[in-house]
Write a structure and sequence with these properties.
By secondary structure, this protein is an alpha/beta fold. It has 20 helices and 21 strands. A six-stranded mixed sheet has the order 16-15-14-19-20-21, sandwiched between helices. Strands 3-2-1-5-13 form a five-stranded mixed sheet. It is globular and about 65 Å long.
């Protein structure tokens, strides 16, 4: 059979990227990136005058369509393949990133009447303006003995769908009333491309409390939270749930012409961006675990039983890998944390030194930090610059740096911040293992994993695990291309089996990071202090909460 190809589209926080992938071996023929024209709106709306409250993070959905119109034709041109040989499209998207739309799938923020109404825009995954609503839901769960249900996972965060919707109702009920549906941005894109009203199991399961056994929570539940939400599911979340690796619909004639593709090719059900990295990293079974290191991080492990607790989600089966419950959690701030430090705290002398040696500031700090021994600086940090997802599930928690002196150097702080993110990752991995997951290998993906050997060695030492690196700098986009190959099926040049698709289309690098046991011993001691400090500042004593109130 003639070679066939799929397109993987990866929508991140700041940009969307696409790759053209050969189905037979996963080779990437071409790639392109388009930054969102409006970026992340956390200060003002596009009018430049309507100010946003603290902790808000919005996006303009028209930016997502610009990615389609620019990226897909670009990779088709660069890849030099016939459009007839492209057999499917897969999309991943940050989640929960949601938007209210009208009956024609037009986002309300694009209507003249609502362009200056902040609740009409897409609320990004890291929008934390709905913390008060999340607190209200958590109080209800606690009062009614529902915190232990896998669906809710002990405590919910403002990043989920329901608190963001409750925020709309409380702040601007007209937006809620005028919304024909409230969609995940990933589901909105598949709707635009195909006209299909199906929704992704990935996003419904992990962000909207849907599962195969019971569907969404009952009307009584939503009525108890907010009377106006009694019919929330039937009125705002209609549509059949579509599995991962399945075709949610086929590409319309309109969009086939816009993108330079063939009409009627399958468009796979959308998947959460970090979750797409699971097939893109080569993860196939419960002996493996995935870690994505980017602006934030995600850790995914596979098991046979549902589980959700302390910010860990794992209550829906078949939403990432067929046959498994996938436990998912992560850190709300990783690359963003290192970027904040470099942008705001590093002296100009280091910038000059980096320029003189022909490197960038991250490379300079990494080189200097690599010369330090674990524990040498006497510093300890909590990685909560963007809140804590596990184990405290609290967006109001803040970052901490402990142990500075008059001789503390920038590279010591840089290393302490990296170590803090490794400690946060270990917290999650240990909770997985407490639930019975015994992954023998961890596969890491993301730009940081490829660019920073010093960081990877620290992670190996802290976790005490050998780390492998996905042999692709676009693991999420590759995962979406793999799901597209599954949606197309073997008869069209794709695959019928998840395991076979992953085996053929994804690879890991030969080089691995092996833990240094002497370093691990020191990190074991620091990790215990990390946990103790977290308990004091974020746990029962609630110092962070008290500081927030002041």
């Amino acid at each position: 059979m003639k070679e066939k190809y799929t397109i993987g589209l990866d929508y991140g926080t700041l940009s969307g990227r696409g790759i053209l992938v050969r189905c037979s071996d996963g080779k990437i023929l071409a790639g392109a990136v388009k930054e969102y024209s409006h970026g992340v709106m956390d200060q003002v709306l596009p009018d430049g005058t309507t100010k946003l409250p603290p902790a808000w993070a919005l996006e303009y959905p028209a930016d997502y369509l610009e990615v389609l119109r620019e990226v897909v034709p670009a990779i088709m041109k660069a890849g030099k393949v016939d459009k007839e040989d492209v057999i499917g499209i897969g999309i991943d998207f940050t989640s929960c990133t949601m938007l209210p739309i009208d009956k024609d799938a037009v986002p309300l923020c694009e209507k003249e009447a609502y362009k200056n109404r902040r609740n009409a825009y897409a609320k990004l995954w890291k929008h934390h303006g709905a913390q008060a609503q999340a607190d209200k839901i958590n109080a209800y769960l606690e009062e009614n003995g529902m915190t232990s249900l896998p669906r809710f996972g002990g405590k919910i965060s403002p990043e989920l769908l329901a608190p963001k919707v409750m925020e709309i109702l409380e702040e601007d009920p007209e937006i809620y009333e005028q919304a024909d549906e409230i969609l995940e941005a990933g589901d909105w894109l598949t709707r635009i491309l195909t006209g299909s009203h199906k929704r992704s199991v990935s996003m419904a399961g992990y962000k909207a409390w849907w599962n195969q056994e019971e569907g969404y929570p009952a009307e009584e539940f939503f009525r108890a939270l907010e009377p106006s939400m009694e019919h929330f599911v039937s009125e705002k979340l209609p549509g059949e749930i579509c599995g991962i690796g399945e075709a949610i619909g086929t590409l319309s004639a309109e969009w086939a012409q816009k993108l330079g593709l063939s009409e009627g090719i399958p468009v796979a059900s959308a998947v959460i961006d970090s979750h797409a990295g699971v097939p893109g990293s080569g993860v196939q079974n419960e002996s493996q675990m995935m870690l994505v290191l980017g602006t934030s991080s995600v850790i995914v492990g596979l098991g046979k039983q549902p589980y959700a607790e302390k910010g860990i989600c794992g209550a829906v089966r078949d939403a990432i890998v067929p046959g498994y419950y996938a436990l998912e959690s992560g850190l709300a701030c990783v690359g963003d944390l290192f970027g904040w430090y470099v942008d705001h705290m590093v002296p100009a002398t280091y910038e000059r030194e980096a320029r003189e040696e022909g490197s960038n500031i991250h490379q300079l700090l990494s080189r200097k930090a690599a010369e330090l021994k674990p524990g040498e600086s006497g510093l300890l940090a909590l990685d909560w610059w963007n809140g804590n997802k596990t184990p405290y599930v609290n967006a109001n928690l803040k970052g901490t740096l402990l142990g500075m002196t008059m001789t503390t150097r920038p590279e010591e702080i840089y290393r302490a911040l990296i170590e803090a993110t490794a400690f946060g990752t270990r917290t999650i991995v240990e909770l997985y293992e407490k639930n019975g997951l015994k992954a023998e290998e961890m596969i890491v993906s993301g730009g940081i994993a490829l660019k920073n050997p010093m960081l990877m060695q620290i992670y190996a030492d802290v976790l005490g695990k050998e780390l492998k690196i996905a042999d692709c700098d676009q693991a999420a986009a590759l995962g979406s291309a793999i799901y597209a190959a599954l949606a197309a099926g073997a008869a069209k040049g794709g695959y019928d089996s998840y395991e076979e698709a992953v085996k053929q289309m994804s690879k890991v690098k030969e080089h691995t990071y092996v833990p240094d046991m002497a370093a691990k011993k020191t990190y074991d001691s620091l990790y215990r202090l990390y946990q103790e400090l977290g308990s004091v500042l974020g746990g029962s004593r609630g110092i962070m909460e008290k500081l927030q109130k002041v």
